[in-house]
Specification:
Shape: globular
Order of helices and strands: HHHHHH
Low-confidence stretches: none
Largest sheet: none
Helix content: over 70%
Number of strands: 0
Oligomer: single chain
Distance between the termini: 29 Å
Number of domains: 1
Structural class: mainly alpha
C-alpha cells in the first residue's frame, strides 16, 4: 500500500487473520490501512465497513486519527445515497460535523 499498490495490499491483507494480532492497536492500524487501500480504489462501501469495524475496536483512536477523519469526511462528500445515513451517523458520533 505504501508504494501505491492498493490492489496488491488488499490481496495480501485478505490472507491475514487479524484476530490473532496481539493488540487492539495493531488490529486498528491494520484495519485503517485496509480501509485506506479501499479508499484509494474509491470502494466506498468497503471503506465504510472497515471504518465501522474500527469504531468497534477503538472509537477513541478512530476519532483521533487524522487519516481516518480525512477518509470519513471525504467519504461523506462522495458517498451514494444508500450509505449516506450511516456515514452521517458516523461523523456525528465522532463529532466531525
Amino acid at each position: 500500500m505504501l508504494v501505491g499498490e492498493a490492489v496488491e495490499g488488499l490481496r495480501v491483507a485478505g490472507q491475514i487473520d487479524t484476530s490473532r494480532l496481539p493488540s487492539r492497536e495493531r488490529q486498528f492500524t491494520f484495519g485503517l490501512e485496509l480501509a485506506r487501500c479501499h479508499d484509494l480504489r474509491r470502494e466506498d462501501a468497503a471503506v465504510l465497513v472497515h471504518l465501522l469495524d474500527l469504531e468497534e475496536i477503538a472509537p477513541e483512536d478512530l476519532a483521533r486519527s487524522a487519516l481516518a477523519r480525512s477518509m470519513i469526511l471525504d467519504l461523506q462528500k462522495r458517498v451514494r445515497p444508500t450509505f449516506r445515513r450511516r456515514v452521517t451517523d458516523l461523523t456525528q458520533r465522532l463529532q466531525l460535523v
